[in-house]
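hi! just following up on the protien thing from before. the input was this:
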Amino acid sequence: MPELSRPLVEQAIRNYQDPYLKGDLIDAGAVESIAIEGGEVKVSICLSYPAGGLCNGIGQLVSSAISNLDGVTDAQVQVRFEIPSHPGQHNLEALSRVKNVVAVASGKGGVGKSTTAVNLALALSVEGARVGVLDADIYGPSLGLMLGVSEGSRPQVRDQKWFVPIEAQGLKLMSMAFLTDDRTPVVWRGPMASGALQQLITQTEWGELDYLVVDMPPGTGDIQLTLSQQVPLAGAVIVTTPQDLALLDAKKGVEMFQKVNVPVLGIVENMAVHICSQCGHSEHLFGEGGGTHIAELYNTDLLASMPLSMSIREQVDKGQPTVAAEPDGQLATIYREVARQVGATLSIRTALAVAAPSISISED
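and the predicted 3d structure came back as:
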């Protein structure tokens, strides 16, 4: 019988393949410590993505694998997570105390972008992350309505400089709708709108955030390009439907982010299939396979293919998005999967950036 050793324990830990880090915990650098005293083994694991709903289960799986080793009398596995910071593009100055800024964007309106943004933010929060949301849709802000913020709510101003974000459902929120009357349309040209958005982002006292989710305006025009160039974005999620027109615009969105060196973290396909509530018949009303096609074309992930569901629309209209209304429901589970994938993809990119060697050239 082989003597209990660290290599044997590591091999047992490797039996668990993390679906989000896309490999075992040893190679992912998630194992903080391994202590062996006689037959007792203690392991500390730190995941790099929000995994509040998974930590106990992962701990049990790894503990079981270690317990199966000969000579082990007790296996204790502690699992936690800690979100790393990801630098923005072009070495833009990071927002104070905000670790990651994630854009949720679409090439056109009407594809469920804002619904995706708030549910992603809520899912990140449910998994244990500290999350803020910026409604960057100057001309059609809807964040307050979607999250049940009382009409007429206004952010406080601190030191005549900083907006204090409104808090709702565990999120910190800022929107142009909190500063204007909902019956007064914003009539601004592109440069003025872009400047206002930059002020909202940089002059909001976000506090300590793991993620700031930015609900981008639909399209790929001047406002979107300015934000992509001047806001330190860690990555972007592209939202589309299977409809050919939406897919065409989604491609433009992906290519815009590529041109400004913002990584596309994945595609969310909404309204992918309709399932009749009466007979259960499923039908692809807007086409089929479009999200998969774009993900493969641009070498990114299809994060989710969401059904055309009346409940998603009804819940968000009532100010209780799906993840808040039914946190353990099937649809909320999908959004939580998306949240973990987004967090893990960012952490992998961060690790690769840190590991990349620097090249310096000097004249001898």
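The chain has a mean pLDDT of 85.
The first strand starts at residue 17 and ends at 18.
cheers
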